[in-house]
Structure formats: structure tokens, C-alpha cells
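User: Hi! I'm working on a homework problem where we have to compare a predicted structure to a textbook description. Could you give me the structure for the chain below?
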Amino acid sequence: MNSMRARARVGAALAIVGGALVFATSAFAHAEMSPAVALTKHGQLFTLAVPTEKENATTTKIELTPPSGFAIDSFVPSPGWKRNVQSTGSGESTEIHNVTWSGGHVPAEEDALFQFLASADSAETYTFKVRQTYSDGTVVDWAGPESSDTPAPQVELRSSLGGGGSSTLAIIAIAVGAVALAVGLLGLLSGGGRRTIA
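Assistant: Happy to help. Predicted C-alpha cells:
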């Protein structure tokens, strides 16, 4: 009987933990730039991911406005999308001010993905503006503060990568906590199986 109760407690606890992890994952369903941390003065492949969150519409256009000082050098082809670039200068002096991808059809629960090579000389946090257009005409501006429902994507450029940022540490803490909880639950389960009734 005690073994059955222990298993029931473990099952309930795992359900709660699973629900919490799903909630934590859904909380990150925003337009994101990755990697979130990169080295200054080094060319890096960046990926912009924009989630389609509407059930009865598809993402058909994405507009990216990079911040000043963040230099996009070239793009990775995006099959199914047409790319329009607004820039000034030419050759190595080209400065890209705006990029629009259109013509795609990304359904709900999938991300529109775009990649490009870029670099920055200054060690600072760069904030991007992203405008998402749906097939029904709805527009979402991913340009708000970090605490908003539509936060602007950010990339932190560092002169060295000798240490994790607060976001990295938070993710590590969650992972370590989940592992510790799982180990504790397994111990509870095995202990309950060996317990005898007086």
C-alpha cells in the first residue's frame, strides 16, 4: 500500500514539474536572435526565429531592423521567401538598414527562420526591431521591453566569453534543480518500495 501511495505521489509531483517546465518553455515563445551572446569583431552566423502564434493564420512577412553598429555581411538563402534589403554604400562600406522577407507561409506552432553572417565592434547589448505580418493582415511588432508580451530580440556582444550571462545561469539553475528533483523523487520511490509495515 505504501509503495502504491509513493508511486502516486511521484506521479503527481512529476505532473506538476512537467507542467511547470511546459509553462516555462511557452514563456520563451518570442522572436529570438541566436546566439544570444557572441564575440565582438568576429563574423558570426546569427539566426532570427519568429514564432507563428495564431491558430488560423500563417506568417507571410518578416521585417528586421538591425541596430546601429551591428553589421550584416551576407545572408543564407531562405527557400520559399523573397528577400528585400534596404542599404546604403557599396562593397565593404555597405550598411544594411532593413531586411524584409516575404512570400512564405509558416503555420501555427512553427517558426520562421532566417540566417545571416554579421559582426559588431563594440561590446554592448544590441536590440533589434522585428515586424511580423500574418496572412489575415494582423501585424505584431516585436519591439517592446523585455518584460512585455512582445519583447525585442537582443544579442549581447562581448570582448571575451569567459563567463555566463544571467540568462545562461538561470537556465543552468533550472536544469540542475530539475535533475535534483528527479533524483529525490526516485529516492522516494525506491525508499517507499522497501518500507515495511509494523
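For your comparison, note the following. Residues 2-19+170-194 form one domain. Confidence is low (pLDDT under 50) at residues 1-27, 168-198. Good luck with the assignment!
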